[in-house]
TrEMBL record:
One of its GO terms (molecular function) is aspartic-type endopeptidase activity. Pfam families: TAXi_C. GO terms for biological process: proteolysis. This is Peptidase A1 domain-containing protein. Gene3D superfamilies: Acid Proteases. The lineage of its organism: Eukaryota, Viridiplantae, Streptophyta, Embryophyta, Tracheophyta. Belongs to the peptidase A1 family. It comes from Malus baccata (Siberian crab apple). Coiled coil: none annotated. Residues 1-95 form the Peptidase A1 domain. PROSITE patterns: PEPTIDASE_A1.
Length: 100
């Protein structure tokens, strides 16, 4: 993302923003959530950026203080995922699909 000019943050949570005015195309990094047992859930490109205005976008991720803090996979990242909760088994599963 270093090739794109930064923009003013829109909140204390979404603090990594870019100005894409003047760009016809952009290239996004590949992002995945890595869980125990080597399981990786790839984030669809639609779950990487949050659009603030016609040309301003922010990374749709917020940091936490340390590894012991709660992590949340938000609705932006889940847009193209089916999420299955096995409450009794204490597991959660992910598969490509979800809302468009």
């Amino acid at each position: 993302m270093k090739r794109y000019p930064t923009a003013k943050s829109i909140s204390s949570l979404l603090d990594t923003c870019y100005d894409f005015s003047g760009f016809k195309t952009i290239t996004l990094p590949t992002i995945g959530f890595v869980f125990g047992n080597g399981v990786t859930v790839d984030v669809d490109a639609t779950g990487i950026l949050f659009q603030q205005s016609a040309s301003q976008f922010c990374l749709a991720f917020a940091g936490n203080k340390d590894d012991s803090s709660v992590g949340i996979i938000g609705n932006v990242q889940q847009k193209r995922l089916q999420v299955v909760y096995d409450v009794a088994g204490g597991k959660v599963g992910f598969a490509p699909a979800g809302c468009q």
